[in-house]
Predict the 3D structure of the following.
Amino acid sequence: MMATAMCRGFIASSLVKPADVLVSDVNRAKLRSIRELGVNTTTSNRDVIMQNEIVYLSVKPYVIPEIIKEIAPFVLPKKNLIVSVAAGITIDSIQKVLPAGSRVIRVMPNTPAVVQSAACVFSCGQCVAPEDADRVTEMLSCIGLVEEMPENLMDAVTGLSGNGPAYGFVMIQALADGGVKMGLNRDQSTRLAAQSLLGAARVILETKKHPEQLKDEVCSPGGTSAHAIHAMEKGGFRGTLIDAVQAGTLRSKEIGNKYKVSNGAGKQQDKADEPIEMYAY
């Protein structure tokens, strides 16, 4: 899902040409699907490493130990820039298995990359050069907002923006349900709910005003918004969202500890159940 979203975003931005992208996956059905973007595909991770400079590892965390051990013999530190999109997996964990001096960047994007509205945060390994960070920043900027942060904040980023679209989808669905309850049809309710959240987000980003100030500007004395906010507070809305970010952060830490990359065997699962996605430029 994430690999496809990022590929679509990169290609739509025109920074990356489809013909310059090589995608690897053990799931042939997934390859047939992504081939619709005009990209090249292979079932060989070795091909991806040997034929390209920038390699994105967009895989499930449990797959990372297996993938890193597989590609390690073919990684050339001066040639390959490895960009991991796997939640919870630390840069140090990956570097310990790759050849000495390997350049590794860890990225936490989110699925709105598919419409070039992602929130992307990245952290650089100790061997990453400034020009490497610049290249990744340029690519990620094509699919949305980009921030560089210390790696010790990446689990919190996962809990907030990595999972954020899911929180937004639930909120939109709930708002639409409310509209339906009050007499609007489903399509109208969903469009109005989605546009309202989109508009609110743009106001914050473009005006740089504090959300509390903007909320106060909407809530006129005795008005409908003030009464609605009161109902949300009684329901523990804000506390629930804070708990959600905390839960996502803690789960990211658990994943990182569970699937640490090492020279030993990683946890195995049925490859047919979870596709392995690598793509490079």
